[in-house]
Design a protein that fits this description.
Blueprint (H helix, E strand, L loop, with lengths): L2 H26 L3 H22 L17 H10 L3 H32 L4 H10 L3
């Protein structure tokens, strides 16, 4: 196994581990702020995986721009160009993720203002008992 393949496998394994830790944080942490942070990390790691799907493991990598309409340029473009579709999807996902994070952060602030806690378990007990 050469160095490039080893490095890429380490990158993929670290992203899988990061997704696992963030899913743990979303599912098992009772603090709503920690859940929001874990959700943000999960979204960013997923976006990174999507960008890496369009990357090519060859050198030199070309931008997705066809410089001239010749057959040689088209052949080189098809062999070396990075796929622009994952990049476009990730730009959209980043904007949507940011707006969702702002909405969730606002909801957490309002929950703390109304109930005095950001602990999900305590909040569930108060809502089940009809308290404020």
């Amino acid at each position: 196994m050469n160095e490039v393949a080893f490095a890429w496998s380490m990158v993929v394994l670290s992203m899988i581990a990061t997704i696992g830790v963030s899913l743990y944080g979303i599912a098992r942490r009772p603090n709503l702020v920690k859940k929001l942070i874990a959700l943000t990390i999960f979204g960013d790691t997923t976006n990174l995986i999507i960008v890496l799907l369009g990357y090519r493991l060859i050198y030199p990598v070309a931008p997705p721009v066809l410089w001239s309409p010749s057959k040689e340029a088209l052949k080189s473009f098809l062999e070396r160009a990075v796929d622009p579709l994952p990049q476009a999807l990730v730009i959209t996902a980043v904007v949507i993720g940011m707006s969702v994070n702002v909405l969730v952060a606002f909801a957490i602030i309002q929950i703390y203002r109304l109930f005095g806690t950001i602990d999900a378990e305590e909040l569930g007990k108060r809502l089940a008992g009809g308290e404020r």
